[in-house]
User: What shape does this take?
Amino acid sequence: MTPPQISSSQESDRTVVHISGALLTQSVEQVERGFSAIQPVGGDVTFDLTEMEALDTSGAWLVADLSQRFTAQGAQLQFLGLKPAHAALIDTVSHSIPEQPGRLDPPRTFTDWVESVGRGTYGAWQDTMSILGFLGLTLHRLARTVVMPWRLRRAALVTHMEETGFKALPIVALMGFLIGVVLAFQGATQLKQFGAEIFVVELISISILRELGILLTAIIVAGRSGSAFTASIGSMKVQEEIDAMRTLGLDPIEVLVIPRVLALLIMLPILGFVADMAGLFGGALMSWIDLGISPGMFLTRLNESTGVWQLAIGLIKAPFFALVIGVIACWQAMQVKGSAQSVGQRTTASVVQSIFMVIAIDALFSIFFSQMGI
Assistant: This one.
C-alpha cells in the first residue's frame, strides 16, 4: 500500500486538507507530525479523501482529532471521496474522544496518605465484622445440622472429604517424611558437637507431634483445598448460581459451606496424624542412616520421652485450623463481585489470610500450652 501523506492548501476562503495513502497504525507515525502542524485558521474546511486507500482506528483518530480542532474554531467541515465504512469508523472514534482532556493526578500529600490509612483501617474493620458474622452464621448452621442431621447433604460431604482428604494424602505424607528427614539430619549435625546425638529422637518427636506436623498440614490444606473452595464458589457467584439457589429457597450456607467445612473438620485431623507418622518414620530412617540409632532404640526412646499427650496437643489444634480455613475460603468466595479477575484476587486473598490465621492461632496455642505448663 502507498505510504500515507497529508498536505493542505488554501482556495479562496476555504482550506483543503488532502489525505492520501494507507492511514494505518503501522504508518501513522510518518504523518502524525503533519496532522499536528495543520492549525485551524477559520473559514470552511474540506477534507479530500478520494486518494485514501485504507483506514483503521489509529488513522481515524488522527482525522477525527483534526476535525474537532477545526470545528472548535467554528469551521464548517466537508468530506470528499469518503467511503461509507471509513465514515462510520471516523464517526465512532469521534464520539469516543473525551470532551475534557485527561488530567494528571496531583502529587500525594500527607493528608492524602492519612486519608488512605483511614480508609484502609475502616475497610479492614468492615471485613473483620463481616467475616465474624459469616463465622457466626456458619456455626449456627453447623449446630442446626447436628440437631437435624437429615438436612446434611451427605453426597456433597463425601465428595469434599475425598477431594480435601483422600487425594491430599500423598503430598501430606511426603511432606511429613521430608520434614522428619530434615529435622533428623540438621539435629544430628548440631548435637554431634556436644555428644548428645541420642536426643535427636526427642527433637524429632516433640517438634513434629506438637507443632510442625499439623501446622504444615494445615498450610498445605489452605493452599490446596482453601483455594479450590474459593475458586469453585466464586465461579458460581459469577455465574449467578448462588442467586438462583436463593430464588429456589435454598440456603447457600447450608448447601455450599457446611459440607466443605465439615469435610475439613473430619479430614484435617486424619491428615495431621498421617503427617506425624510419616515425619517420625523419616526421622527414624535418617537417624538410623546418619547416627546409627536402630529403629528399636528409636522406638524405645520415643516411648520413654514422648507420651501420647504430645500427639494430642498437635491434633487438638486441627479442628480450629479446619474451621478457620473453611470459613475464610467460603467468605472470600462470597465477596466475589462478578468477574474472573475478582475470582483470582479473592482466591489469592483466601490463601494468604488462611495461612496467616493458621500461624497466628498456632502461636496462641503455643502460648496457652506454655502458660498451662503442658
The CA atoms of residues 23 and 344 lie 40 Å apart. The chain has a mean pLDDT of 86. The two ends are 84 Å apart (CA to CA).
